[in-house]
Amino acid sequence: MERAPHRVVIVGGGPGGYEAALVASQLGAKVTVVDSDGLGGSAVLTDCVPSKTLIATAELMTDMADAAELGVRVTDHEGDVATTFAVDLPRVNKRVKQLAADQSGDIGRRLEKEGVDVVVGRGSLAGVDRVAVDGPGGESMLRADAILVATGAAPRTLPTAEPDGERILTWEQVYDLDDVPTHLVVVGSGVTGAEFASAYLSLGIEVTLVSSRDRVLPGEDADAAKVLEDVLTRRGMNVLSRSRMASVERHGDTVTVTLTDGRTVEGSHCILALGSVPLTQDMGLEEAGVLLDANGFVDVDRVSRTSARGVYAAGDCTGVLMLASVAAMQGRIAMWHYLGDAVAPLDLATVSSNVFTAPEIATVGVSQRAVDAGEMQAEQVMLPLATNARAKMQGVRDGFVKLFCRPGTGIVVGGVIVAPRASELIHPLSLAVAERLTADQLAHAFTVYPSMSGSVAEAARRLHHV
Length: 466
Description:
alpha/beta, five-stranded parallel sheet, 13 helices, globular
């Protein structure tokens, strides 16, 4: 007698959800995705795709600002040298939203092609084997052999800093701006705050960055953060370090950010980058036996299992590492594990990540902080990009390549790259860390001359073990 296919219900259509759906369908399961916000989730519709599309325009503006040094003279229609460039923000935002919608549509077509059912509505658990759906047509119930929760997270706000969607904004609301801000205040100097501050600065907007810590990007490599802060301040950004926001208020067309020491900063607009909160409330999770931590994140192990049998979770709602790539891998691992396919537990030591500022900061593996704290014994080298021939040709002066390797064996365990498009340069280091290559093996691979990647090989050569 032929066995009925496994029934998998996935709540949430972000990277963790749709990637899990593709894997489960390919492994023969009957898959239903319940989604209320649009396929792709915040990663596609309000976060990664939109912000990086905006940043692509900012990158062009950054390149144009340095055009004269490379011998490019931009003239107006009368032949006079143009001295300023202006951004058409409504047109940029229209393109941002169109690309996000297109990407969401592509995901929907892929799921349909793979036989995945998509149900529009808000899903919640009615036990470990049922998902209740509140949709446009009313309420319905889906039975499941396994459930994956992939509901994501939302921008964190405070009672003293409530967004209005016009002048006080979360990072999801900036794409509705029609008027170019005259002075943008960004509260929060983590990855999200730094990326938006850098992007809008490149678009020619006055920016003040309010940072409660002693430097921008407190969670990133300190050397990399210093390079970025030096570049941002040199380009005209006002960085207020050790400055904690107390409140944000709007008075007409003016936004006032009040700091805890009594100082105030006035601007035309304010972006709140205060972190994220998981979308896990009122979903029946705890009633079904799913353990949440004190902040509401779903507790999962390295194969994405929750404390409830047959219930998995993936993505930002787990708080493991808020990256689309990690969410997608968590979703895949969950389905590989549940459906009995070959699976390796999630290994955060091999995750590469990138901060999309100008310059970008890409990292993988062990950090400088871990080395300094004695958590990992490692030898290191840091090679400035200013000595790289290709960097000189492109007018790049800021940035570096940093490598960490184990003493004795020379195995590469981590790296940092600060450079334009560092996100494209980190991959060889990711491969080295994942495959436990030595610095010598990395150094012996051919690189193109001249190229930025040549600095990766050169740094590896400087770690040669005799």
